Amino acid sequence: MDMDSASSVVLQALTQATSQDTAVLKPAEEQLRQWETQPGFYSVLLNIFNNHMLDVNVRWLAVLYFKNGIDRYWRRVAPHALSEEEKTSLRAGLITNFNEPVNQLASGIYSFACSLWSHHTDCFLQQIYARDEAAALSSLERTLLSLKVLRKLTVHGFQEPQQNMEVMGFLNAVFERLKQFLECCRQIGSDSTCREKLEKMIILYTKVLLDFLEYHPCAFIPLIQRSLEFAVSYVFTPAGEGVTFERFIVQCMNLIKMIVKNDAYKPAKNIDDSKPESLEAHKIKTAFFTHPTLTEIGRRLVSHYFLLTEEELAMWEEDPESFAVEETGGDSWKYSLRPCTEVLFLDIFHNYSQTLTPVLLDMVQNLQGPTNVEDPVQLLMKDAVYNAVGLAAYELFDNVDFDQWFKNQLLGELQVSHHRYKLIRRRVIWLIGQWISVKFKSDLRPLLYEVILTLMQDPDLVVRIETATTLKLTVDDFEFRTEQFLPYLESIFGLLFQLLQQVTECDTKMQVLHVISCVIERVNIQIRPYVGCLVQYLPLLWKQSEEHNMLRCAILTTLIHLVQGLGAESKNLYPFLLPVIQLSTDVSQPPHVYLLEDGLELWLVTLENSPAITPELLRIFQNMSALLELSSENLRTCFQIVNAYIYLSATEFLQNYAESLCRSFCDLLKDITNEGQVQVLKVVEIALKVSPILGAHMFQPLLPAVFRGIVDGERYPVVMSTYLGIMGRVLLQNSSFFSTLLTQMASECSQEMDLLLGSVIEMWVDRMDNITQPERRKLSSLALLSLLPSDNSVIQDKFCGIINICVEALHDVMTEDPETGTFKDCMLMSHFEEPKLSDDEEPPTEQDKRKKLLALEDPVHSVSLQQFVYEKLKAQQALMGDQGFGVLMETVDTELVRQLQEFLQGL
């Protein structure tokens, strides 16, 4: 059949066959029936129903003829069978048609894909049983391809797949096909050429079920019973013996887990609020998970799947570090058997704890007392049961007296030194780590530290690594008390350092470094006498880890806590520390991709704990311009670093870097969020606070925008508050610069200076409520009062507003002495005191001390607002005379005057 000429003829016949007129309809149907056996007819039909521009009825009829023809003529043995060439063309054409907008037509395409899959599957099974492996492999590849297409169509091709009988029929057929393919595994053996692809096929079938369950949980409800029966049968009964393999077991367990845990299958707390689908699913699950079934699953998980395998035991002996830090977190449960079994156990135990708790406690009871070291089966069983008790710690809270168990049983097990008992020593110390945050009395901690001290010297490396991990969990726990740990600190820290040197793998070194970091963080300055060896070793480790960026991240984290623990003494680390910061924060160096976040944090804590600036520390700031250009999520830390430099040495820092910093800030402010804008402005505010004269001079290019923002009435309250904070500093502490700025802005705005000043004061008074921090509110009062005394008519016109702000601020900062009835400014600071700290409190950093000393000189904390108001009003009165001042005061609300007099009484 010639495609070009045939297309128009077939299209005309299909159009006539959709007619309501039987005189037109009948001849067209007869013509189409005659073409059914013509070569090329089905390719023409494919082109017609792939054309979305044609009438839907015509396309639908083309699909029906196509589907019926495929059913009749696809098989090679059928009369008038389609040629292999045309079959290939049809397959290719269908695979490109996944964007079919009409549901009925999509169903037709799906039906064809199903028939393809079924045909190839039957061919494979016939060939494999006929021992024709070459032909079977070819059919298996086709089956695999057709199933991949079906998987996508089934999962993503239908909004309501449960309404489509063909979809649900295919999903039900999956279970039968799985059984057939699993039986094939038994028949062909492990050395067959088909074995690898056969296992791949079986996994693909399970993926169909798992994906459908994930994307269509409600449509999956009719399949719950069959899925559970299938998965439990193969994983937890003899039915799976000889046919299952590890990846398949993982998939089956994931299927059970997803059904057990699925929120769509759980009724609401109030049954009346539950959806019918949820109730139906819950009913099916409840009927399946009977007491005997759950008991068998629980026992089998622990006594079979939790047992350490021969491969794992061999790994323990041959590669202890890989065994000790084997990856079990993240999504590993989706692919690896051990984490998969543990996650399934946890989910089933959580959902059916009433049934499974007695089962597990019975298993524990049967293993009490010391285990014969000559009985490897019992040792492995105890390890498995203790693993289960650790995993289910939160569920067993009310059923296990862990403190008594620790004292009466577990402690004794840890003291068995036989080399075969290392399984139990390692498992028990792990078990304690799982329970430490669940139920473990504080007064037992010293006993635990003694145990940890002993096990950190265990001959077995796996036991030592596990002990270090439990130490981290213990130290990181909410109930941790520094004073209980201090007697053991020196010995344990020394052993941790030894362990860090002994291990050779990067992952293990990282794990031990995390423990060391945690210990340093929790004991803080108490670590100082014991870190000498670590400080000497870290440069060597940094050099060795040049190709291992994740290990370097762990070193950076350790250095962060080390600097915090050493405080000002961290300056002794600078020869190593500063080059590390330099490399980690240099965006031109490839490692910055991994090291930047931790490197910035280290840079910040180094500055916060630095007693004085050094040329090398100042030089690192050359990295900052490029970092600010990145505008990444690390921008906030970058601003904190800038602020830390200003607090540390404003003069040197601003003289060296203010110009480049101003350029960076100007670029940033062009395209930044309001929050980012506030962060930039806070840097300027801190510079003005630390050095009012130099700060204003160095950040001069940014100040006109601040001035304009105030005059224009910036709408975002936090930004406006920061604008007023900056302008308050300039006005109060650098009045000559304020006058220069006012002159500049008046010229730019073509406005009288006095009128512009009036606009600023008016907006300041109007937007005072935007300022929420009491310090800034007091600053605003001091700044506006600094304009007095004045004979400027504009300032006198705004006098009422200035007094209004002052009274508001007085309410914020004044506290009344209950005995004398007088008021005092609660923000005043007269001297610097070192705070008395408890053991668990962090001591102040060098930057904290710098801030305190700065506060003593800050007008906000050194000038009494009450006294300042009084003196300024007196000066204004002296300037104007009593009569003139009286007239001025009459512009102020009488209630405000009364409140003001109350605050000023006694002066």
Automatic annotation (TrEMBL):
Its main location: cytoplasm. GO terms for biological process: protein import into nucleus. It holds the Pfam family TPR_IPO11. Signal peptide: none annotated. GO terms for cellular component: cytosol; nuclear envelope. It is found in: Cytoplasm; Nucleus. Residues 28-100 form the Importin N-terminal domain. The keyword Protein transport applies. GO terms for molecular function: small GTPase binding. The keyword Acetylation applies. Keywords: Acetylation, Cytoplasm, Nucleus, Phosphoprotein, Protein transport, Repeat, Transport. PROSITE patterns: IMPORTIN_B_NT (PS50166). PANTHER family: IMPORTIN-11, IMPORTIN-7, 8, 11. Belongs to the importin beta family. Interacts with UBE2E3 and RPL12. This is Importin-11. It comes from Amphiprion ocellaris.
